[in-house]
Amino acid sequence: MTALGGAPSPEMATWRGPEPMLSIAIALSIALLTAQCASAQTGPPQGDKTPNDPFAGVAPATPSPETAQEPQVSWLHKFLNDNFGFRKEILSEFDTNADGSGASRQSLGFELQKKFSTATSTIAGFDFQGRLVRRDGYNAVPNDMEGAGHQGWTFEYHNLYLDLYNIFNPLLGADERAASVGRFNFRIGQSYVPFGLSLQTDTHGTLLQLSNGNNFGFDEGWSAGFWGAINKDLNYDASYLVGSGCGLKWRGQGGLGALRVSLSDKYSSQYGIEGGLSLIGGERLAMPMAESDGADPAAAPLPLRTQRIGIDGRYRHTAPKGLLTFTTELSGGRDASNPVVTELHQAEYLHGSRRWGVAAQVRRFFQESRGTNLSVIGELTWYFRNDVANSNAHWIKLNLERQLQNAVAPPHTIVTLQYYFYL
Amino acid sequence: MNRLLLLSIVLLAAVPQILLGAIGCTLSNPSEDLKYLYPEMTTFKEELIEFPKLKDGAALFQGLRARLGSDLDPIYETYETAYTVYSVFKGSVRIGVVHGVNVPGKGGVIQVFLATDPQTAEIKSFFFQRLESPAARQLRSKEFRAQFTGLTLADFYKHDYYAVADPGAKADKVAAVRPPALDPAGRPDYVAALRGLRKNLILLDYFVYGRRFEPYFDRAQQAAHKTKD
User: Fold this and answer.
1) Which residue in A117, A265, A266 has the most chain B C-beta atoms within 10 A of its own C-beta, making it the best mutation to test that interface?
2) Which residues of B touch A164 (CB under 8 A)?
3) Which of B87, B56, B60 is nearest to B217 (CA)?
4) Are B30 and B43 in contact (CB under 8 A)?
5) Residues B126-146: what's their mean pLDDT?
6) Domains recognised in chain A with CATH numbers
7) What is the model's pTM?
8) C-alpha dist (Å) from residue A411 to A103, A158, A343, A407, B160
9) Domain chopping of chain B, boundaries
């Protein structure tokens, strides 16, 4: 019968079947072929089977039982080896102004980082960064706004915080966990003030700083709050700050509430753009940030009503043989009843080798009751190491600050030479 | 003033002129990035890996150059460089492995990330976190990156052999990858990106997959020697 159900063709009608020997040969061939197919389907992956293929028969190795099983180790060994980082830091800085008034700041420091995980999840992270500092003399350089009151030997800590990731996971079902990954993380301790680009910038070792030092008298402080993703485009940081700067102090201030909404990482990754909008309000201690403005460093800080709103942005773009980065932070608000305006603009060029870079910064701080501080800063850096993530750095910087306006003292020119090592 | 100047000179003279460094590569925002790659994920786990802490770490690091087929960069690719492997879970099942490396490009750093299948080690997704390059737009194109989906380290080792002994062989999946349209200024970054991708696969084979693709490396070496003879 044909497939269509019609009459058999003449060839089919006269066909008598194969000779007996030929039948046996065909049957054997089919059996062999079937066996080969079955073997290919159930065996391990094989190499390509072209006639001269040197990879024919090569299959991925399977790990030996020795390497497949984790050896038994003590909890201390596990603690110090699993997701544990310990880095050393050396900072040596000399600066002088045009009058020949020199200052020295030397420090030895460390950073300890540890992450804690379960079998399927990293649930917490801890960071502690400390320095033993020796200061002799003082000039108001941007990276040592709080240094005037700490002559001689001091131990300082900068980062000291605990992060709890996806903090509501224990309360959620599988679907809710999937929907909320990265949305509700909690941080408590001392870290960067969530205002401006500070949280997205590691200025721990750099001479050039962002605006918060001028704006609030400190760029790090004690806080507790949530951070994470709002959606695929935006992130948030919402915190309560004690408002005392580095070190936990209560002198009657009510503290500060801070909220920052920023562009998600995809904008940085795809377009080289970072940016955000920040709000902060409440009471902080007016730290002796204004030593350069003539305030008494020995005076006790007092609560000061503070309000700020700020907008910021950073843009990275390739340049001939390197990378250009432009940074801007703008903010306005009030300290008590006095209007305050801050501006910071920065341009940097980093050579493609990441061996050297140049930078220029203009920073302006205006407060109605005091006047204006305005500085232009130029910087040249030679890098021995320059990690993208700032986890490994080694450089020498030469920094020149020309103060164009100073609210209470004659404007100075300050030259700073810095050596920095972090590994 | 003179004392300060003298101290500065002494300090500068004391600094060694060449110091080797290490560069790590982590996701800037792991939750966000991993969720994008694996929308069904429920949790993820980070694991910091350093050669000095690995069993036979020094030997493994020595072997990296041979498997990569080019010298290691003294800034980006040192023994001390730390790596972070992200394991992605749905419930208790591991559904993905994500890992990134830095490689030097012409315009600066290139961060090459791979998402791979935990069972087969095949590439599921290939993307750049940072790409400081005049060819950034072309290299980031979905069409270009999608060509690597399904490849394994074995395909790269095989390519070493075929490129010399049998150019254009159908079995050479890496040779079948069509580069994006690039002007000469962007070409070095294309080469650097491919090098980063291969380095990433080699390190994943070391850190996660129990060196399962070593037989392909060995065979490629043997075959290449035979071809030379």
Assistant:
1) A265
2) none
3) B60
4) no
5) 91
6) 84-422 (2.40.160.10)
7) 0.80
8) 17, 30, 18, 9, 65
9) 18-228
